[in-house]
Design brief:
CATH topology: TIM Barrel
Shape: globular
CATH superfamily: Aldolase class I
CATH architecture: Alpha-Beta Barrel
Strand content: 15-25%
Largest sheet: 9 strands, mixed
Length: 297
């Protein structure tokens, strides 16, 4: 077993103490809730006062809401069964091809939880056999204060996974330090033009590469790369994997994902209005092999 995989299994074997158990969570919770007075948890930095009920881009208010929670068996093999908490805010991205657009971009039914109530649920699921608690969405960043507060109530030893698009602010990355065991990231684009066109975000490359570097200093990394059809393979993919190879080598695990399908508004963009071909998948896999990346497909 290679070193990166060995590290993941060590985290998930139930013997080591999760990072949040050693973190000064009470102080972090206080700092995180203070940010909500002028919210800049993600890099959109709407600066609305969420404590007064004002809503920014993500529509995350001043309460913890959940869309669904369940045992997930579709994550990377070393993570399952993973207890995924799909949070109720909208995403900080607006991906035109999102496969979960009903959760990430449309108003949907959610259930309100108090952090202590959610912590009791997580503890019980850990006792039932889940390997981790997996904070996902949409995007977990807008709920960072509530997640940290929930972890402060958790009694069980259970790894925590931050499943994210990595578009959070430096303040959020600092607060996350010492609280997460694995960052499970989506690295979507190799150029800002693609990010703005397909996800409606600015300065993507600078922000996401910065946060990956910070994340690796804090915890283990699993980087997901969703292969997209057409010119993305030439304009974005090489830059992504070359950057990973240069900065991490084979010390992180990449998941090169071939399950892209045109969903939501993708048909309005001819270049991404089809699935990825086998030839395209072989092209990206061969390049990852050439760079010496540690990856699964």
């Amino acid at each position: 077993m290679n070193k990166a995989l060995s590290n993941y299994y060590k985290i998930l074997d139930g013997k080591s103490k999760p990072r949040f158990k050693s973190s000064d969570l009470n102080k972090k919770v206080e700092e995180a809730f203070n940010i909500l007075k002028k919210c800049e948890l993600c890099e959109r930095k709407c600066k609305v006062n969420r404590t007064k009920g004002n809503l920014g881009f993500c529509k995350g208010g001043y309460e913890l809401t959940v869309s669904s929670m369940f045992w997930h068996f579709g994550e990377e093999r070393m993570l399952i069964p993973s207890y995924t908490i799909f949070l109720g805010n909208l995403c900080t991205f607006r991906c035109v091809f999102c496969q979960n657009y009903d959760i990430s971009q449309l108003q949907h039914h959610t259930t309100k939880y108090e952090p202590e109530e959610l912590a009791n649920i997580l503890d019980n699921e850990r006792k039932g056999g889940v390997l981790n608690w997996n904070w996902v969405g949409s995007e977990p960043t807008p709920y960072l204060p509530f997640i940290l507060k929930t972890l402060s109530y958790c009694k069980e030893n259970c790894p925590s996974i931050w499943n994210s698009n990595m578009y959070m602010s430096k303040k959020s990355m600092k607060l996350l330090g010492g609280t997460q065991d694995i960052f499970l990231t989506d690295f979507k684009y190799g150029c800002n033009e693609s990010a703005e066109k397909y996800s409606g975000v600015k300065n993507y490359w600078e922000i996401v590469t910065r946060n990956h570097l910070l994340a690796k200093k804090q915890a283990e990394l699993i980087i997901r790369i969703l292969v997209m059809p057409g010119k993305w393979i030439k304009t974005d993919y090489p830059k992504i994997v070359e950057w990973i190879a240069e900065n991490f080598g084979d010390n992180v695990l990449c998941n090169i994902m071939g399950q892209y399908r045109p969903e939501f508004k993708a048909y309005e963009y001819p270049e991404i209005s089809r699935s990825v071909t086998e030839k395209e998948m072989q092209t990206v896999i061969k390049y990852a092999e050439r760079l010496g990346l540690n990856f699964i497909t």
